[in-house]
Design a protein that fits this description.
Shape: globular
Helix content: 25-40%
């Protein structure tokens, strides 16, 4: 690529987080911010060009608690359909607005250890290997955060269920470059996990 490629970050934050009980996961305190606020801050301080946040459940509550002025909010009216529908909503927005970007980095709002350094490492690897899908290595599988070049945008737009980008990653195994997140991949999927990670990382 002759010019610096344009990479957009798409943060998925539309879920109801039913496993958290009465707590709204996206606005749970984390350090001097919230879980979603931390994700947005890390995205905004990375080498990405723009940051988008997909909201759905409890959208107004989240907007009242998290400063999203530095990013673009996208509403997923079908958030009940899961992560795949949020990716589809984000890609629909990109394509309807004719936004010019060469790749999209998809990340979650509930992985607060995913920091700017890791995001930049992912994007640096994609810039050096633009024909690859750059993923995060989990035990026995690859997942998000993950970067997809624009040749995969149509596939992402057709997702519609809770498996997110898993099927696309699986079907393109030959071009996957999986990075070791070194423990940063932990997601806050329960109140117990939140308390545990809070005690470990915010003292």
């Amino acid at each position: 690529m002759d010019e610096k490629p344009k990479i957009a970050i798409l943060i998925l934050a539309a879920g109801e987080s039913s496993r958290m009980g009465e707590h709204t996961k996206q606005i749970l305190p984390w350090k001097d911010s919230t879980l979603l606020g931390t994700a947005v801050e890390q995205a905004n301080t990375s080498i990405a060009d723009t940051t988008f946040v997909v909201l759905g459940a409890k959208e107004e509550i989240i907007k009242a608690e998290v400063n999203l002025e530095s990013s673009t909010s996208i509403t997923n009216a079908n958030w009940q359909n899961g992560l795949g529908s949020s990716i589809t909503t984000g890609m629909d927005y990109f394509l309807s607005k004719s936004l010019s970007c060469d790749a999209v980095l998809i990340m979650l709002a509930d992985q607060p250890l995913i920091d700017t350094n890791y995001l930049n490492k992912m994007m640096g690897n994609w810039i050096g290997n633009p024909s690859k899908i750059i993923t995060t290595q989990y035990e026995g599988r690859s997942g998000v955060p993950a970067i997809f070049g624009k040749e995969h945008f149509t596939e992402l737009q057709k997702l519609n269920k809770d498996f997110g980008a898993k099927d696309i990653i699986t079907s393109h195994a030959a071009i996957i470059l999986a990075l070791n997140p070194e423990g940063k991949e932990i997601d806050i999927d329960s109140w117990e996990t939140y308390q545990e990670q809070l005690n470990k990382n915010t003292k």
